[in-house]
Design a protein that fits this description.
mainly alpha; 2 domains; 8 helices; 4 strands; two-stranded antiparallel ribbon; two-stranded antiparallel sheet; about 10% strand; about 160 residues
Amino acid sequence: MSTFEQLGILAAQISVESERLRDVYDGAGVLPSLERAAEAFVDEAVRRGGLDLDLVEGFKGLVLEAAVRRCGTDKEAVKKAFVLLGKETSVKSRNHTAQYEREFGKLLDLRGAFVAAAAEPAALTEGGATATVTTTSVGGRAVSFPAVMQEASKQ
């Protein structure tokens, strides 16, 4: 194979790799999804006239929750999720359960902020009828759920 042919193959490989990297940065990777989530959060803050930035800490709970779902339904799922997400030291030190509960609490804060917004009378009025909102305690926190959401969670 001539040097010219080798350069042609190398150029083709570089082109393919360049396209792959462009796909990662232009929408096929995690970062663009996170950027869209950040934009959605800011859009909601603008719509409401403000939103507490600390609610973003609940995202970690969302990630943990997704990892636990992927790791199974057994009592070891939380451990497996922490290992999957690079927190083996938390599992070894038996601190993962407390960390999970802390992050879950932040997730409840995040969900509570958005459930509370959905519970505004304008959001619950459909065809002139207003749905009821029930407040319940989850992990020692008062969380309001529209009755429709409660029915869906029972199924």
